Amino acid sequence: MNIFVDESGTFPTTNNAGSWSVIAAYASPECDRRSLEKIVTSLRGSQKTYAAEIKLGALSEVQYFQFLEDLAKLNGVVFAAATEMSLNSPDLASHHQSMQAEAVVKYKEKMLHESMRQALTDLSNAVKKLPPNLYAQLMFQITLFHDVVARGVLYFVQRFPQTLGEIRWRVDQKDVIPTEYEKVFRRMLPAILQSISMREPIMMVQGFDYSYLKNYEFPPGEKPTFLQSTYNLPDADGLDLGKMVGGNFKFVDSKKVIGVQIADLLASGIRRFLKSEFLDNDTAAMLLGRLTVQAQKSKLPLKLVALSTDAIVKGSLAKRLKLLDKHARPMLI
Asked: Angle, nearest 10°, between helix axes 180-199 and 132-159?
């Protein structure tokens, strides 16, 4: 399973309404690789350009809609976390960031080795030093990763269980040299994911073939106990999310990875849709919807988030989101 991740928007600190930013993950079985290459090659041909990467701004609406239709014929699906940044006020974001940094070192004295205590202190300081926009992106990107694992596993285990034997994450890099953001993200991701999964256990259905996930199960007697004993949380489920998201994870140059270019086009298209900037936003809703997967409990396929609570939308956008939801792929066969 190849999971390609990219974002659209800079997650700016702002009080201006309508400032949407999106992180998208395109999950695609390996069997679709050549078809994805053909789709992107076709886009380049339509532009008569040798550019290493096609951006949404270089495509007409007709071309972009055709791109979405072509993707819908394949087996991949898109997950996205989107936020309207005016909901994340500077004061709220600063408080959230401080609390997260403090949480990192809250129980550091329980660590047996000084090196571990120092590592937690260094990580806490790194979280504090992140610019507000990158801190917001960090939190929402981790939220997206949990959504991909939770819904993606349930979706693909029914259709292509064998593709879950190896899960590869390819995320657009910010620079050739790993940035401080990327270092913090890699270190924060496994712990926060495991913590989220204890509050929101990943649904596993009896009778489905989970045998290909064996490499991501905790060996007998090795389930983590620190969070349960310290925070009084329930037992962890059987999946080692740290290994699932970190075992085959790379920050890559999007110009060299077609799947990340597709994630970029999807993130950009979702952002344009949320900003109501397509000429035909209803058609965009239907076409994007065909690439998403139903969420449970009447939630939307696109995850709308804020630092304090889930985002709530009203008016014409709410109607178009319902249209998108109507065309989402069913979770259960």
From this structure: 50
**Contact between 316 and 276 (Cβ < 8 Å):** yes
**Quick one: DSSP state of residue 202?**
P
| CATH number for the domain running over 2-213+249-326 | 3.30.420.10
pLDDT, tens digit, 9 for 90 and up, residues 298-308: 789 999 998 87
Residues 104 and 115: their CA atoms lie apart, in Å, by 15
Both tokens assigned to 205 = 């259905």
For the chain, the structural domain boundaries read 2-213+249-326
CA quadruple 235, 298, 155, 286: dihedral positive or negative? negative
Enter the tokens of residue 110.
């329980």
* Residue 86 CA: distances (Å) to CA of 93, 135, 288, 311, 333: 11, 15, 25, 11, 39
Distance CA 293, CA 144 (A): 14
CA atoms within 13 A on the CB side of 270: 35
Residues β-bridged to residue 26:
4, 78
What's 106's DSSP letter? Answer: T
Q: Tell me the C-alpha distance between 174 and 185, whole Å.
A: 12
Q: For the whole model, what pTM was predicted?
A: 0.90
The DSSP output letter for 212 is G
Distance CA 77, CA 300 (A): 14
Helix (H) / strand (E) containing 249: strand 249-252
Residue type, 266: L
Helix 90-105 to helix 132-159 angle, to the nearest 10 degrees?
70
Q: Give me 35's structure tokens.
A: 């078809």
Tokens of 294: 């139903």
* Whole-number Å distance between alpha carbons of 188 and 127: 9
Give whole-number Cα distances, 33 to 161, 176, 237, in Å. 17, 25, 32
Structure tokens, 28: 């695609």
At 86-138, the pLDDT tens digits run 888 888 888 898 998 888 888 677 666 687 788 888 888 999 999 989 999 99
Token match 């078809």: residue? Answer: 35
